[in-house]
Specification:
The chain is built from 20 helices and no strands. The chain has 405 residues and is mostly helical. Helix 7 crosses helix 8. The chain is globular, with a radius of gyration of 23 Å. Residues 178-278 form the DUF6596 domain.
């Protein structure tokens, strides 16, 4: 039974986005695509224990989901306006051309990231349709109620249908204007995989990080001269390279300074460094993702140059003066100028990051290093309450419990 559950879990991770995308292309309706795919997985849970796992789970799920979609259209065909959809369900004629790259999931993400949708809605819809996250997982990531998130996603799908947002990769002339929104969403999808927020999920969602990288590679093939596309891909590769060393065997987060560098993927690091060097050699002023990639390149070099990292954060702050960037800069300042200087910088961010677990975790570590254990313990408690990642929670709990009572 354990092997069966694992097979269904693996099928969900590997096939969810592909099946949803295939149905969205065929039926032109994200609601039908999502619900039929979900029903196919329910059928798998019911049938596979008796019938066994099929040789090709993806094909089995796609066929089953198509049947579920057609059944739904038949049920709804009492209204005249459903007749055309029913006919489309049985139409096996060749599909219309869909763009420069024939990839179902890339078309789906451009649909989910259409500029007609609000930015936060694009992220939520992509996490649901492409990432396969549950509504509750997405709600936790956004720190909102599950019902509110469900309504947001439902409204987004309805708007796509009502305004006939096309299911395709934009044309070459439209692509550059659309790609920045897609990159922002891919970055958040990757981050959800890198530091999963769900308490009942694996601390690292390799399926999400892998899919984000795959899609970033496709976008780079479309826009090989776009510096931010290259920067985001480099950032993902340099982060993914450390995945095997990020969580200990007992499920605890391992901080960068304590990771086993022999466990890092040298091939991904080499590719990420090459992309960073290429962008530096271009002479074009770097954007946000390129600077973040350069910071990660320094972190994955044989020796971490903290002064260089601070200089890169200073550049990033001029582009993106966000409190989270300032917080990350303070972490680097602690390594160069000491925890007291860094703590002063962190405390200045209190009003803007009070609900952000990493703010309290950073502050707790600085207070611990200064020997202010009671204050550190209180800060650890706040960080633990706000953290959703199981490995991070385990790490913060151990650090708190090591403080002298």
């Amino acid at each position: 039974m354990t092997d069966l559950r694992e097979a269904i879990t693996q099928a969900h991770r590997a096939e969810w986005a592909r099946v949803v995308a295939a149905l969205a292309r065929r039926f032109g309706d994200l609601d039908i695509a999502e619900e039929a795919t979900a029903e196919a997985f329910v059928t798998a849970v019911e049938r596979w224990p008796a019938d066994g796992v099929p040789p090709n789970p993806g094909a089995w799920l796609t066929v089953t989901a198509n049947r579920k979609a057609i059944d739904r259209i038949r049920r709804e065909n009492k209204r005249d306006d459903k007749q055309r959809e029913a006919q489309m369900a049985y139409d096996d004629s060749p599909p219309e051309p869909t763009g420069a790259v024939d990839d179902e999931r890339l078309r789906l993400i451009f649909t989910c990231c259409h500029p007609a949708l609000a930015p936060e809605t694009r992220v939520a819809l992509t996490l649901r349709m492409v990432g396969g996250l549950t509504v509750s997982e997405i709600a936790r990531a956004f720190l909102v109620q599950e019902t509110a998130m469900g309504q947001r996603i439902t409204r987004a799908k309805a708007k796509i249908k009502a305004t006939r947002i096309p299911y395709r990769v934009p044309s070459a002339e439209d692509l550059p204007a659309r790609v920045s929104g897609v990159l922002a969403v891919l970055f958040l999808v990757f981050n959800e995989g890198y530091l999963a927020t769900g308490p009942d999920t694996d601390p690292v969602r390799h399926d999400l990080t892998t899919e984000a990288i795959r899609l970033a590679r496709l976008i780079r093939a479309l826009l090989p001269d776009d510096g931010e596309v290259a920067g985001l891909l480099a950032l993902m590769l340099l982060t993914e390279a450390r995945r095997a060393a990020r969580v200990s065997p007992d499920g605890e987060l391992v901080t960068l300074d304590r990771q086993d560098r022999n466990a890092w993927d040298s091939g991904l690091i080499a590719e990420g460094h090459r992309l960073v060097r290429e962008r530096l050699a271009s002479g074009v002023a770097p954007g946000r993702y390129q600077i973040l990639a350069a910071i990660n390149a320094v972190h994955t070099s044989p020796r971490t140059d903290w002064s260089q990292i601070i200089a890169l954060y200073d550049h990033l702050l001029r582009i993106d003066p966000s409190p989270i960037v300032a917080l990350n800069r303070a972490v680097a300042v602690a390594e160069l100028d000491g925890p007291e200087v860094a703590l002063a910088a962190v405390d200045r961010l209190a009003g803007r990051l009070a609900d952000y677990h990493a703010y309290h975790a950073t502050r707790a570590d600085l207070l611990r290093r200064l020997g202010r254990d009671d204050q550190a313990r209180a800060a650890y408690d706040l960080a633990i309450d706000l953290a959703g990642n199981t490995a991070e929670t385990a790490y913060l709990t151990r650090r708190r419990d090591q403080l002298i009572s």
